[in-house]
Design brief:
- The chain is mainly beta and 200 residues long.
- The chain has one domain.
- The chain has two helices and 14 strands, in the order βββββααβββββββββ.
- Strands 1, 2, 3, 4, 5, 6, 7, 8, 9, 10, 11, 12, 13 and 14 form a 14-stranded mixed β-sheet that branches.
- The radius of gyration is 15 Å and the shape is globular.
Length: 200
């Protein structure tokens, strides 16, 4: 039956603004520690309604992002039912194919899959993300000369294939995961937000 997912993305990392990974260059500091969260505003996976649910990856990227071999911890919104959790994991492990499978094949090792309270309030380039007590980020967008939000499109890499992304920065970005070796507490580093539509 496949999937149809519409929603919003928030991505933060320890690169400076703007993250060079999106144009296929190496991370600013050689490696990249990131949180990527996809919130489903509307979605169906094999007949299971996943609207309102969020899935996130906390990841360490060991070099150029296109070379893969990421190490990641996956978090599922703890408000998800078992059916919703299974459906989202089917998509975000690549088993359902489509554009998401092309993205998640870059993950080499998954250290954990956990349920956690997730707060996602991002709208039009501004908002917050919280996952449990160890992960928190805020996002502010950059604005163009006419007041519109600065966007990226047709990039070498994207966590929202086929969709433009709002360029922003994270006034706050905290992430701590011993299994991955991440301990980040930064201000004013890279952030991106987007809306997406995924079909498979």
């Amino acid at each position: 039956m496949g999937y149809h997912l519409e929603g919003r993305l928030l991505e933060v990392c320890n690169c400076r603004v703007l993250c060079p990974c999106w144009i296929g260059e190496d991370p600013d500091f050689g490696t990249c520690d990131t949180i990527i969260a996809w919130h489903m505003d509307n979605g169906m996976v094999d007949g299971v309604d996943v609207s309102g649910r969020t899935i996130a990856a906390v990841a360490h990227v060991p070099g150029n992002i296109l070379k893969g071999n990421w190490t990641a911890a996956i978090f599922i919104d703890d408000a998800a039912s078992k059916a919703q959790e299974d459906a989202l994991l089917k998509v975000y492990t690549g088993k359902a194919g489509g554009p998401v499978a092309d993205l998640v094949k870059l993950i080499g090792t998954v250290v954990s899959v956990e349920r956690a309270p997730i707060t996602f309030t991002v709208q039009a380039g501004k908002g917050t993300l919280a996952i449990g007590t160890d992960y928190y980020a805020e996002l502010d967008p950059y604005l163009g000369a006419t007041g519109g939000k600065t966007t990226l499109s047709d990039t070498a890499f994207s966590t929202v294939p086929g969709a433009p992304a709002y360029v922003g920065k994270a006034p706050v970005y905290r992430s701590k995961n011993a299994a991955i070796g991440i301990d980040v507490d930064l201000k004013d580093h890279n952030a991106l937000q987007s809306t997406f539509v995924f079909d498979a």
